[in-house]
Specification:
The chain is built from 24 helices and no strands. It has about 450 residues and is mainly alpha-helical.
Length: about 450
């Protein structure tokens, strides 16, 4: 009893408060997806960059942000989420601050191609904030009861995911009003403010707080269970990565997230080109349709988490990928502007809801290595944002203008594969339920 009283007095924060803090932190970090996209033309003009250089520049923040999700997601299982979260956001501050310094001191007269490697370096550092996604997934999962995780994770990821769409709209307006360096200065201020809010709101789950205060693992676990914590981590970073990789269900989840979230990232980069090249849409129309896709897909993720809690992650994922398939078929074969817009809306709904459903399934299928699994799924799944656009580009190049539409056959194939994998997970769900019940009995 004394342990319980002591533990209760030592705890900071709450599940709801930490959910809000993690959402704010991820929102701030994820905005780096659009770190260069809206400003690429300015760099092309003064640095005379080639298309391949521009492609690498735009992709660099997403590359580091994706790959770092794996080790930092696993780190949550060792130390909780707050420390890795702050390290990633601080690295992002260094990157954005470096870009601001370069623009303030060199742009435009002295910013030559010789500075391109430095631009890549600061872009890579700026993208570290994107990796906060897998950290927040683990942090929120350990705080939240299993029955509420779909809703909580959807709130976290849904509202956090809105930042690239907002950045794509707001950053060009700021740059038009005050210049390129002002845009990055405002970005720097926003990230610093977000770090301050996260420091106040974001706390690790009870188990990790008690460990840092000197409690033995068994004592910390017992006290944390009395505070309502239901999930607990593996004993080391290596183990959580190995345990999650050893579970075969991790890899279908990676593939599903490759389609839903990696596909989402790919379309945020590809849609402006599609609308302007295939339908000759004006620049602001193409930008508006792209931003609308990004925001709609992100926000629909929030109710998608509630549906996953109510109906089950596999059933919701299957329905979502079916909707994605319909949208992909419309965009592939339609030559009517309104019908393609409708197809884009279907794709947005399918991807957003599927994103929520997939991460409802992560703690269900790999409950003892949530951080490691979130790292694999979030990191490798996000690489779809790099793999898919070149495929779309090759199809467009080989088929001419109609290839900009026909390229969406890639999404038809991914949607069909995802439906099959979701059905496989559902068919084997009974074995997971039995294993979870056995673990619960053993824990007693």
């Amino acid at each position: 009893m004394q342990t319980s009283k002591t533990a209760r007095g030592q705890l900071s924060g709450s599940a709801q408060r930490s959910l809000i803090g993690a959402t704010i932190g991820f929102f701030i970090g994820f905005g780096a997806v659009s770190l260069f996209g809206p400003t690429a033309q300015s760099f092309i003009k003064v640095m005379h960059l080639s298309p391949s250089q521009v492609g690498l520049l735009v992709a660099m923040p997403m590359l580091t942000g994706s790959l770092l999700r794996i080790p930092f997601g696993a780190w949550v299982d060792r130390n909780g989420g707050k420390l890795p979260f702050l390290m990633l956001l601080l690295a992002s501050v260094v990157g954005i601050g470096g870009l601001y310094w370069m623009l303030l001191s060199l742009y435009p007269a002295h910013l030559s191609a010789a500075w391109y490697p430095m631009l890549l370096l600061f872009g890579a550092l700026g993208g570290c904030g994107i990796a906060t996604f897998s950290v927040g997934i683990g942090q929120v999962s350990y705080w939240t009861p299993r029955s509420q995780q779909g809703r909580a994770l959807a709130f976290y990821a849904g509202f956090g995911n809105t930042s690239p769409g907002l950045v794509a709209i707001i950053l060009p307006l700021i740059i038009a009003a005050g210049g390129l360096w002002v845009g990055y200065f405002v970005s720097l201020v926003i990230v610093l403010a977000g770090i301050g809010l996260y420091l106040v709101l974001g706390f690790d789950a009870p188990y990790f707080q008690l460990l840092r205060r000197g409690a033995a693992p068994a004592q910390a676990r017992a006290a944390a269970q009395q505070q309502g914590q239901e999930m607990f981590p593996a004993t080391s970073i290596v183990r959580t990565l190995v345990d999650s990789a050893a579970s075969w269900r991790t890899w279908p989840l990676v593939a599903l997230y490759f389609t839903s979230f990696g596909g989402f990232l790919a379309l945020t980069a590809w849609l402006p080109m599609f609308w302007s090249s295939f339908y000759k849409a004006p620049h602001w129309v193409a930008l508006g349709l792209t931003a609308g896709f990004s925001l709609f897909s992100s926000l629909i993720r929030v109710p998608g988490g509630g549906w996953s809690d109510r109906f089950g992650g596999e059933k919701v994922a299957f329905a979502a990928f079916a909707v994605l398939l319909v949208g992909a078929v419309l965009m592939t074969f339609s030559q009517a502007f309104a019908l393609s817009v409708l197809g884009e809306a279907f794709v947005a709904v399918g991807m957003g809801v599927a994103n929520a459903a997939v991460f409802k399934l992560v703690p269900h299928y790999v409950p003892d290595a949530v951080g490691g699994t979130a790292g694999w799924v979030g990191g490798l799944g996000a690489l779809g944002g790099f793999v898919v656009p070149p495929l779309l580009g090759r199809i467009a190049q080989s088929m001419g203008p109609v290839g900009y539409a026909r390229g969406y056959v890639v999404y038809i194939a991914l949607a069909v594969l995802s439906l099959l994998l979701t059905a496989l997970l559902y068919a084997t769900r009974r074995g997971v339920a039995h294993a979870s019940a056995a673990l619960a009995v053993g824990a007693r």
